[in-house]
Amino acid sequence: MAEAFAFSHVWEQPSGLSWLVHKWAHHSSRLLELSVALTIALGFRTAAPTMVDLIATLALVAFVLITFVLFRSHNRRLCESCASAIPLNAAEQGERYRRRFAVAHASTQPKLMGAYLIVLFGSNALLLVPDGRYGWALVQASMIYLISSHATHRRLQPWCPQCAGGDGGFEQFDEAPDLPRGGRLLV
Ligand SMILES: [Zn+2]
Ligand SMILES: [Zn+2]
Question: Where are the transmembrane segments (predicted)?
């Protein structure tokens, strides 16, 4: 859908609570990455869990769920902050981040994502064996790269060769967005 990406459909400047939600959504990828890092840090705690830990964990889960919903919603369009953050050398960066584009596209494949989720949840079993938490942390940290790949892909999607070739997973545009193609911002 063209309106999924065109600047003529960027979010209107919000105010009050909607401003907070807008900012939360705009920074959702960073917040999710921080949440994963915090989860890994909690996994390395050696003290016995307390009631405070339990409440903090539940709060973190709720925060992650809300942030994930906002992340998905925000991924469908560019807000003004996103638009103004597009680098002048976007075409060059598009070349540099081809691996992240490939990861973002691979994550739209249900079979691959299913296998990844099995590994992700299965890695919790590593917490039961001595020093297994290092392997668990490594698997969990892969989520940071996945989230980052999605954020990079959305920011530079007009320069993603797989989207340009219609190589699936992401919404295609009926018409080209009014974006620079030669490393120069036209807005
Ligand atoms: Zn944004
Ligand atoms: Zn793409």
Answer: 54-71
165: confidence class by pLDDT, cuts 50, 70, 90: low
Q: C-alpha dihedral over 97, 91, 187, 74, to 10 degrees?
A: -20
- For residue 70, which ligand has an atom nearest its CA? 1
- The pTM of the full predicted model, rounded to 2 decimals, is 0.74
Ligand 2 centre to CA of 86 (Å) is 16
> Which ligand lies nearest the alpha carbon of 26?
1
Distance 109 CA to ligand 1 centre (A): 25
**Could you read off the pLDDT of 148-158 as tens digits, one per residue?**
999 999 888 88
Q: Which ligand is nearest to the CA of 149?
A: 2
What residue spans define the domains of the chain? Answer: 2-164
